[in-house]
Each structure stands twice: as C-alpha cells, then as structure tokens.
Amino acid sequence: MNDIVSLDSVRRGRGRERGRVVPAESGAEVESEVVVSHDAVDEWYSAEPETHSAQPEARKTARSSNHPAGRARAVDVPPVAVQPIAVLPVAPQLSDEERLDRVSDTVIRALGRRQLSADETHALLMAQGASDEEAVVLVARYEELGYLNDLALAESLVERLSERSHKSRAVISRELIARKIPMAFVEAALEQLDESEEFERALEAGIKRAGQLSSYDDVTAERRLMGFLTRRGYTSGVVREATKRALAERNKRSSGPRFR
After folding, report:
1. Of 62, 78, 192, 232, which sees the most CB atoms within 10 A?
2. 233 with 250, same domain?
3. Model confidence, pTM
4. Integer-rounded Cα radius of gyration of the chain
C-alpha cells in the first residue's frame, strides 16, 4: 500500500505538470505506466540530437538572452564582399639620357614663352631634376644655340622699363639684378640710358600720371604724384621738379570740379 501511495503521489505530480488532475488507479496499472514512462524518458535522453545539414552555410544560429524560451534563433549574416586588389603598373625605369632629354624639353618650352637669364635657366633645370653638373652643360648648350643671351636680355629690359614703365636708372638696375643677370651685363645695358635724360623720363611719367588725377585738388594730386615718381626710383630733386611741371601742365588742360 505504501508503494501504491507513493506511485500515486508521483502520478498526481505529473498530472499537475500537465495542467490536469489524473485519477488514481490500481497499483498494477500505475506501476506499469510508470515503467513505460521511465523507458520513454531514457529513450529521449539517449536519442541523437537532430542536425539540419540541409541548412545553407550563409544561415547561422545565434542564441539571444532576450528570447523568452532562451532558444536559438536564426540570424541572417550577409556575406562579406571581397574587394579585388588593384595592381598598379610599374613605370619603366628611364635611363639618364632619356631623363635628361625630358628635362631639357620642358625647359626649352619655358624659354619659348619667356626670356630667362642663364642663372634662372640653371635653377629651372635643377628644379626639373637635373644635377648641378648636368645643368651647367645644358646652359652652355643653350647659349651656343642662341636660346640664352644675358646681355640681350638686359638691354631689352632696360628699354622696356625706361620707356614704357618710366622707371629710374636705380630701379631698373635692381630689377635686372633680381633677374640674376651678371653685374657686368647690367652696367653695359644701363649705358644706353643718358643720365641727362633722367629728368625727361620723370617728367613724361609725371604728366601722364597727372592726367589721371584731374578730379583731385592740387594738394592731393601733388601728394599722389610725388609718391608715384618716388616709387619709380627717381631722386628727390627730380621728383619735386617733375611734379611741379606736371601739375602745371595738368592745370592748363583740366577744367571742372575737383574733389579732395
């Protein structure tokens, strides 16, 4: 009887787990059912877990702690695209002769656009990749071919700066030196400027500039005109005299209101 009561208690406990009450039966029936139940349990524990080999490789499983049953949920993992590695072409190695030819062609094109002095050309060659020795050889070749002529360049600059820009001898000299022209060529080119004509050049520049100051009164026009001639390198005596004559010429030609 004790065994029957114990098995009956087990059956009632299992009935509660299933959500219903199981009525007690005879001891033999209960024992038989319990034995069968234990066999089913053993069979369940000894069974091999099911595998799903047919699942695609791209579909993986991941366990989420937020899932109510703690079961595995399928998570789609997108495939990672593999970018191809670009293979850059290797530039062919140039010989010294080919490299120097390219540098020379670049500099010759520059000489066709603008006159350069020998020292300016030397610096440009080195900036393009030529060595100091190679630049010296190329400059000598350009001089033989007539691409470079420092004296002709100096004379051209003196003429342009004096006649078109109306600059003084001192300013022209500084600009030629800035172009890296040798001092011997600078002095030779400046000889074409007559020092006695320095005042005439200043007066010509002053008259031209004074015509652009017709709307200003004499005091303002004088201040602006003196600054203009001074920036062109004329001496103070030449500046004062040229300004005086240029303003007098302006007053003869101009008429109308003037503003400060």
Report:
1. 232
2. yes
3. 0.54
4. 52
